[in-house]
């Protein structure tokens, strides 16, 4: 008999990867939870044989209907889309999963973040709630999405694309492709006894902003440049830009914790070999050098996509998680 796995955020980045890796697996039946079951993305999931159900993380009754009969749950929250409600959404999923008798719960959190970022605080509290719930669980910690690279350049100067982010050129960032998420989650769902109570950290490799630019220019055609930030420029940006508090806290984390491979430590080894940055860039180069997806109005500075919700009310769900 197949085990039903509920996937939260099935039309998003992490949930979509989980669907892709579990689709047509003989051991699992998939149930996708979305607020818009008639959206094109949801209809495509239905076409692929996934059961799509309406659900709202703020509505416990809708979660009861979604989790009914489920063996497992993959849960993720979007801090940037639901600022101030993330803790409620996360604990709702945990409580209803326990109530519905869910056997295994995989929670996507944020690892080793600075404690002054409310995004990190709410996820920490949800993680603590999960650990105290009595559910069998595993916690997935993603690194920074390689997919973020397509958002980082914001202007062209004489044919050059400028990448400007609030951190020094030589500050290492731990990267992974969100496309690999499902491989890690699948490993946990396949062997719940092995992964119960364990932490899974997804990190492919470290690279600085300068190295990213070098990789993008690797074809020999120099089309990207990096606008390096010194300490003074960073602190001035942090002081003046109220919208940037969360991002600055995360950027400070990278600056203060250079290339610490403990951030890739995992309790249980997953045999999946994640994409390298070169593999990702080579496979997505046309996307990466296309039109910039977001620039702050009146500025040539990159503002990470999550802040778009605060700036122009048109959010794109993109992870800025550190590890």
UniProtKB/TrEMBL annotation:
UniProt superkingdom: Eukaryota
Keywords: NADP, Oxidoreductase
GO molecular function: oxidoreductase activity
InterPro entries (alphabetical): NAD(P)-bd_dom_sf (IPR036291), NmrA-like (IPR008030), NmrA-like_oxidored (IPR051164)
Pfam families according to UniProt: NmrA
Residues covered by the NmrA-like domain: 1-273
Keyword flag Iron-sulfur: no
GO CC annotation terms, alphabetical: nucleus
PANTHER family referenced in this protein's UniProt entry, alphabetically: NITROGEN METABOLITE REPRESSION PROTEIN NMRA FAMILY MEMBER, NMRA-LIKE DOMAIN-CONTAINING PROTEIN
Recorded family membership: Belongs to the NmrA-type oxidoreductase family.
Protein name per Swiss-Prot or TrEMBL: NmrA-like domain-containing protein
